[in-house]
Amino acid sequence: MSACRDDDPRIIGIKSKIRVVPNFPKPGIMFQDITTLLLDPKAFKDTIDLFVERYKGKNISVVAGIEARGFIFGPPIALAIGAKFVPLRKPRKLPGEVISEKYILEYGTDCLEMHVGAVEPGERALVVDDLIATGGTLCAAMNLLERAEAEVVECACVIELPDLKGRDRLKGKPLYVLVESH
Amino acid sequence: MFAAENGLKGDPRLEGISKAIRVIPHFPKPGIMFQDITTLLLNHKAFQDTVDIFVDRYRDMGISVVAGIEARGFFFGPAIALAIGAKFVPLRKPRKLPGEVISEAYVLEYGTDCLEMHVGAVQPGERAVIIDDLVATGGTLSAAIRLLERMKAKVVECACVIGLPEVKRLNGTPLYSLVEPREIEHCC
């Protein structure tokens, strides 16, 4: 589902602050740039507040953020709802013992890692990223958390590209987004 | 300067923050005692205390820009920016930021690397703080300072969770740190 209150003035403001950069990182891609959102303190705060309002008091003890733009939204949410923040990183960035999950790209594969021991069995977790496209990265993130026996409650993104149907790749778990871009 | 020398001597939050940091020997290569702050992020109180200490320091200094260095500066910078009403500006590795950027090269032990910032993210005269998890040689932070100064912002201070006693300023810009690097506890 998207944010229910489409008429919430905060959503309109957030959407207006996202910049579309054509042909990045390659021709044909209309890149959804959230850095301009981060330059507007009110719009950035509204973004975090919308997630916090949804997840506070729901007994969520883990917010997992996907490198690197998930690291911008995840920690403020985690702090506000009293949860730990767990970074999910590209290979060889996390020191110490990790578990790895491969996922498929348009050409080739990539890999996401999480620290062993970051998450305990039974913990309730959110996965946060700036945007969901095909859902491949989010699915890998969910797999990491479930391998550690956490329960993924929901995936949360600022932006969804619904035409890419990433929502259907989340193993039946719900997705919450603030804005859609077609 | 360290927080303990600057009004926070004996603050129990600092001990909690230090204890929450994990040392990983020989990462990413032999001889390096890696200061791992991910365990700090798992400790809600210590993580909140870390952010609070920086927020308390910067909230009345007229700071309109918090610039965070990819990737571990992203853990701390946004929360600080939100609390003090500043914008957050990510400083990133090459080819990650879309649109027009300025680049600043810096020297590594072997070779060089590069940090980028969006053109237009920062206006002339804005007062900025740069944040990262840790300062080592100061090369990355110095590149970050140059990026902001090229856009005519004033870098008021650099802020790190973990600092080195011998690094007090970077090219004239003061450095504020919370704790020193942890050592591995030795068993007998």
Topology (SSEs and partners):
The complex is a heterodimer of chains A (182) and B (188).
Chain A: H1 9-17, E1 19-22, E2 30-33, H2 35-38, H3 41-55, E3 62-66, H4 70-81, E4 84-88, E5 98-104, E6 109-115, E7 124-132, H5 136-147, E8 151-160, E9 175-180
Parallel strand pairs in A: 3-4, 3-7, 7-8, 8-9
Antiparallel strand pairs in A: 1-2, 5-6
Helix pairs in contact in A: 1-3, 3-4
Chain B: H1 12-19, E1 22-25, E2 33-36, H2 38-41, H3 44-58, E3 65-69, H4 73-84, E4 87-91, E5 101-107, E6 112-118, E7 127-134, H5 139-150, E8 154-162, E9 169-170, E10 173-179
Parallel strand pairs in B: 3-4, 3-7, 7-8, 8-10
Antiparallel strand pairs in B: 1-2, 5-6, 9-10
Helix pairs in contact in B: 1-3, 3-4
Instruction: Quote the distance from N terminus to C terminus of chain B.
Output: 34 Å
Low-confidence stretches of chain A: none
Note the run of SSEs of chain B as H and E: HEEHHEHEEEEHEEE
Q: What sort of overall outline of chain B do the alpha carbons produce when their principal axes are compared?
A: globular
Strand residue content of chain A: 25-35%
Number of strands of chain B: 10
Helix/strand structural class of chain A:
alpha/beta
Specify Rg of chain B, calculated over alpha carbons: 16 Å
What does this structure look like?
With 182 residues, chain A is of the alpha/beta class. Chain A has 5 helices and 9 strands. The model of chain A has no long low-confidence stretch (mean pLDDT 95). The longest helix of chain A has 15 residues, at 41-55. Chain A has helices spanning 9-17, 35-38, 41-55, 70-81, 136-147, and strands spanning 19-22, 30-33, 62-66, 84-88, 98-104, 109-115, 124-132, 151-160, 175-180. Chain B has 188 residues and is α/β, with parallel strands linked by helices. Chain B is built from 5 helices and 10 strands; from the N terminus they run H-E-E-H-H-E-H-E-E-E-E-H-E-E-E. In chain B, helix 1 packs across helix 3 (44-58) and helix 3 packs across helix 4 (73-84). The A-B interface holds A 19, 21, 24-25, 31, 33, 35, 38-41, 44-45, 48, 67-68, 71-73, 75-76, 78-79, 82-87, 89, 92-96, 115, 118 and B 22, 24, 27-28, 34, 36, 38, 41-44, 47-48, 51, 70-71, 74-76, 78-79, 81-82, 85-90, 92, 95-99, 118, 121.
